[in-house]
Amino acid sequence: MKFKRVFLIVLDSMGIGQEPDAADFGDGKCNTLKSLLTSKEYDTPHLAKLGLFNIDGVGCGTPVPAPIGAFARLRELSRGKDTTTGHWEIAGIVSEHPMPTYPEGFPPEVIEKLEKAFGKKILCNKPYSGTKVIADYGREQKETGGLIVYTSADSVLQIAANEADVPVEELYDYCKKARAIMQGEHGVGRIIARPYIGDYPNYERTSRRHDFSLDPTGETMMDALAKKGLATIGVGKISDIFAGRSITRSTGVNKNNDDGMEKTLALQKEDFTGLCFVNLVDFDMQYGHRRDIDGYARAMTQFDRQLGTFLENMRADDLLMITADHGCDPGAPGTDHTREYIPLLLYGKHVRPVNLGTYPTFAMIGATVGDIFDAPFATKGESLLPRFAD
User: Fold this and answer.
1) Sign of CA dihedral 336, 56, 21, 333
2) Is the CB of residue 177 less than 8 Å from the CB of residue 147?
3) What architecture (CATH level 2) is domain 5-96+216-388?
4) Which fold has domain 108-212?
5) Where in the chain are all domains bearing CATH 3.40.720.10?
6) How far apart are alpha carbons 175 and 191 in whole angstroms?
7) What is residue 153's predicted lDDT score, i.e. its pLDDT?
8) What does the pLDDT read at residue 154?
9) CB burial string 192-219: b at 16+ within 10 A, e below
10) In the chain, which residues have pLDDT < 50?
């Protein structure tokens, strides 16, 4: 076994250009990375050395003459552009049918079931910004004792409440009840607990967010590794995205991207055999959706600094894989995700620097991880291992 540990880092929403079917998902021209390069705050020399700007069709930046890593462009085969669908496909599951979304809010029969299960009035029931919804409904939530239920362009049902009125564990319990209801036809990808604190008009969301995902609908690379007794460590919301299935250890939700990378750097010092799967959600949540180009660019610059430390600490039998799960172009209209190709950068002592080209599914990643650990499973992806390992 050339590789003992795989560190798979997902730069949440860091797409590299629109896919051919982007218009089917309501997107025009979009390229998250290209928008970031319009900011003077953007500086990622380590990503450049790995080959980020050498990827086919990336359309921005300056390619380096001799990248130190292998690199590829991956297209999404699933019918979606959301976090759950993207991560599931990375892990090997292609979702042929899109998860339900609710641009007009949830239908009356769903709200009726939720109110009966909660024993509380539901407020809002519209697509909404997470910060604006508590500003607009926080006072009513306190006065009525109700729960703020809202959605977004993603396949999600979000429940917000002030921690002073609804303790976090109680809010989680309401989310579990909602998860039991939101199945089948209404099986949204995630039920999200959104606790906040403060008094009107000064509300602030807390870090005690928690996602309650659908159970994965097929076999994942983590299932295959766990069956062999190998480690599958989740950093950030990885465990939430996969409903905890076949995650042998989770470091919990990150306070921010810096915290997620610090946890990853700490795991580098440990001895394990298997996969460390990392999600850095701030790129998407804090900057992409808010169309904050400079903020996103600064966050990428900070990640690149921490990446430099990670590269210095890598062992001879480590493999680093850096990718994304969809786009969220901060230069595009609206606030939604964007249907984009994702990058795949690979680096390690046993990695040949090579342009791997473009492939039709994110599931190439899961198939590659399975192949590394001789843990095959059913997926539409194919292993890239023979194409980059020396």
Assistant:
1) positive
2) no
3) 3-Layer(aba) Sandwich (3.40)
4) Alpha-Beta Plaits (3.30.70)
5) 5-96+216-388
6) 6
7) 81
8) 85
9) bbbbbeeeeeebeeeebbbbbbbebeeb
10) none
